[in-house]
Amino acid sequence: MSEIKLSLEEMRYISLVQDLTGATIRDCIIDEENDTIIFIVKEGEAGLAIGKNGSNVKKIKILLKRNIEFVEYSNDFDQFVKNIFAPARIASIKKVENPKGRITLYVSVHPQDKGLAIGRGGRNVHKARLILKRYFNIENVIIT
Question: Domains (ranges, CATH) in the chain?
Answer without folding.
Answer: 8-72 (3.30.300.20), 88-143 (3.30.300.20)
